[in-house]
Structures are given as structure tokens and as C-alpha cells.
């Protein structure tokens, strides 16, 4: 097997390379496949980092043939890929695409899938290695896993012989109990080493760069503690409303949809101790330690430290938009939150007393995600003597989307005879510095699965730990019996109630 060298393959585990395999996408005709997965594979092919021996099989109930599925893939790549279809490469890529029409509940469909793989893999030189991607609703996971086993499509975890790996999309459960049930279902058929629970945020360049920034430079880590840091803000803002996902969102809400996975993972990367090795289990052990140190928010403390709200009528780009409860598919008396803000603490030696402020919401002014580390104020001496005009604190901002990069705000002297200090920004942007668009998160994560590198994927114990913390908040909401939620006008940064979380020491939410 010959692999071309590319920076995409040089990640946290440089010794691992993607292995020859078949990628089977359950839900292969769905939105995730069209928008993300098939374009990701195509970009990997253009970069020359896919295994030489590789093929893709879509599986779903849509009545596609191999030819019509290739047209479906091309349409998605043309519309959603970071790079358009290149005619010079398309013919070779589409040759690797095939399709199986079937039902998830029909054993015969899985036998047809097995026959298809047995038929095409020898032609591509794939030695029986298979990656199954479950781009399906969580309710179908148990059914598909059992069908895979019954059809003889699952190889045991072993160093020798062909491998089987399975990728599971979020949400994994909707509380601790249901998440444990999903994980138990997976564990009956797959070894933990074969299971890759995907969170696409962890594949983003800026998130990965937090490791390098902290542990690959001498200037940040000595300051990365409660002696120098005042607080941390983690924001994941969404500009769009619920759209066509009302059915899913009514059951999920912002806490389950964003906090339990994306935001808590960002918190772990920000707060973790330095791992002693770049191996998957070592890195994930240190992330788990952060989750285990999160101070539980229970009972009446839920009302004190957590704010939830819904977007009301407002404006998006100057256009009137309805409030959440007026969206199609949403119950008129819904108490599902579209916004949540949390003040929490990591109770360990490094972070004792440092608040972490987490927030996410729909119908906010812009789509943006960032981690902002605010350092403590300069002492009230010398240049900071005027309490009515205090110097602005230093802030290190890690932009995850859009315009990935990082910025550091520092104080500088304005030109002139008087000493006047003005905050300026030292700004690094991936696109400007490296002159090219960063790979999509799914590109990196798919490569890692093919290589067997689970560093950027959630382990079962971390899923349990995050759900345990979030379930306490869910219980507090249920016990409160609230029949209405505060509203914030669409196109604003959230409810006034969220500001109360930031009143201590004149803190304030950042305007992104």
C-alpha cells in the first residue's frame, strides 16, 4: 500500500496511517451524507491521503442505483464541498462509490449488503476491513447493530485479521440512563476499541490547536491557572432558528444538543492537565478527569447557576422571523430551551475558584464559536489608577468558527506625548497565514477512524460523566415545574437573565 504524504495525516499520533477499508454509510442518502460525509471523502481523495485500496457503500431506503447514487454524491459535493468537483479526478472517485437499497429492519437487506461488499472489495484490494458509519436517528442504533451482527458483518477486535469499526453520531441518549442503554447495546456487539463516538467539533483545526498552543509553547502554560486567569467564556452561537428540525429539537433542546457534547468537550480541552503521551487513552483519561472535577449543579443551585430561554419574534438580517413557539412543528406551550447559559466550576488545584461561563443559543446575531480566556486585571497602580476608567484585561480568544484562528488583546501606548493606553489585538488567522482553507472536521475524523486513532472521539466513561452532570440540571428543571421560559428577541445575544450570571467583579458576556 502506497500513501502520499500530506499534513492531514500528521496529527496527534503520527505513527498511525489510514488503512485499506470499505466505508459503509447507513443513512447514505441523508442530509449528513450529502452535506458532510461524501464531500469529506472526496476532499480526502483530492488530497491524496485516502488509502490506495478504498471504497464507499451507501445504504438506505431510497431507491438509488450505483449510478444514481454517484449523481447524488456529485450534487452534494458541487453544492457543499469546500472544493468543487474536479473533472480530472471525479471519474476515479465515483468508481469507488456504490449503493445498497434496503430497510434497517429487513435481515435480507443486510445479507445483500454483505454480498455487495464481498463482491466489490476484491476489486479494490480491500482485505475485509470495514467502517460502519451510523448516520441515522438514535432510535435505530440498536436495530442496526443487531442486524450487523446477525448478518456476520462484525469481526472481533483482534490485532490480526480484518477490522470492523463503527462510528456513532450524537446524540448518544437523552439523559444518563438512555445513554448507558445505547452504550450497553454497542458493547454487546463491539469492543470499546471498535467504537468511535464522533463529535465534529473536536475535528476542527482550532480545537486541535489548543493542544499545540498550550503544550507546544513556553509562554501560555505557566499562566494557565487560577493565579492569572479571572474566568473563561465558551460560546457556541447559532444564527439560524430551529428550521426543519423542530421534531428533533423539541425532544432535545440546547442543553442536550450542544452543551452535553460540543461545549463540555471544549471545556475539557481548555481545562485538562498536560497528558504524558499523545496516545488516545492517555489524552481521554485527562479529559475525563476534568469532567469528574466539574462541580455538580443540583436542586436549587440549578436556578442560581443555569439560565434557559427561548427566542421570541425578532429580526434576522432585517427580515421578520417568528418566535420559537410559532415555528412549524413546535408545541404552542413548549418549554424546550433554545438558549442556555451556565456558570460552572472545575474543582481541582489548577482551576479552584475560576468560573467557566458556557452559553449557546439559536437565533443569535451571528454564527460563531469561541473560547475566551480572560486574565486578571492589572493591579490598581501605575497605569491603572483611575477606578472610573480601568484598563481592559488581557484576553486570549480562540476562534473555532468562522474564520478559525486566535487573538490576544493587550494594552499598548497610543502615539503622542501623553501616556494613554489602548487595547490592541494580535491576531492569527489560519486562512491568512497558511493561504488555504482548513480541512473540514469530518475529513480529519474519518481519517482517524481509518487509522484506528480514537484520540478525538468520546470514550464510554466520558459519555457517562458528561450525561451525569447534565442530567442533574435536567432534573432541576423538571422539579421546578416551570410552565414558561424567558424570551429574548431573535437577533439578540440572549435574555437579560443571563447577564445576572456575570454580575460578579463587573464581568460581562463578550460581544462576538
Brief summary of the model shown:
It is built from 13 helices and 17 strands. Helix content is 34%, strand content 20%. Helix 6 (176-189) links the parallel strand 5 (164-168) and strand 6 (195-197).
Could you say how many structural domains there are in total?
Answer: 2
**CATH-defined superfamily of the largest domain:** Dihydrodipicolinate Reductase, domain 2
The CATH architecture assignment of the largest domain turns out to be 2-Layer Sandwich
Structural class: alpha/beta
Question: Which strands sit side by side, in order, in the main sheet?
Answer: 16-15-14-13-7-12-11-8-17
- Summed over residues and divided by their number, the pLDDT gives a mean of 88
Principal-axes geometry comes out as: globular
Task: Tell me the Rg in angstroms.
Answer: 24 Å
Molecular structure report:
The longest helix has 26 residues, at 246-271. α1 (31-47) packs across α2 (66-80), α8 packs across α9 (280-293) and α9 (280-293) runs parallel beside α13 (460-480). It is built from 13 helices and 17 strands. A 9-stranded mixed sheet has the order 16-15-14-13-7-12-11-8-17. It has a 6-stranded parallel sheet with strand order 3-2-1-4-5-6. With 512 residues, the chain is an alpha/beta fold. It has 2 domains: 7-169, Rossmann fold (3-Layer(aba) Sandwich), CATH 3.40.50.720; 202-438 and 460-506, Dihydrodipicolinate Reductase, domain 2 (2-Layer Sandwich), CATH 3.30.360.10. 34% of the residues lie in helices and 20% in strands. Residues 1-15 have low confidence and may be disordered. β5, α6 and β6 (195-197) form a beta-alpha-beta unit. The protein starts with 20 loop residues before the first strand and ends in a 23-residue tail after the last strand. It has helices at residues 31-47, 66-80, 87-94, 107-124, 141-150, 176-189, 205-215, 246-271, 280-293, 301-305, 430-434, 441-451, 460-480, and strands at 21-26, 54-60, 97-101, 130-134, 164-168, 195-197, 229-237, 306-312, 314-316, 319-321, 339-345, 355-361, 368-375, 395-401, 405-413, 421-429, 487-489.
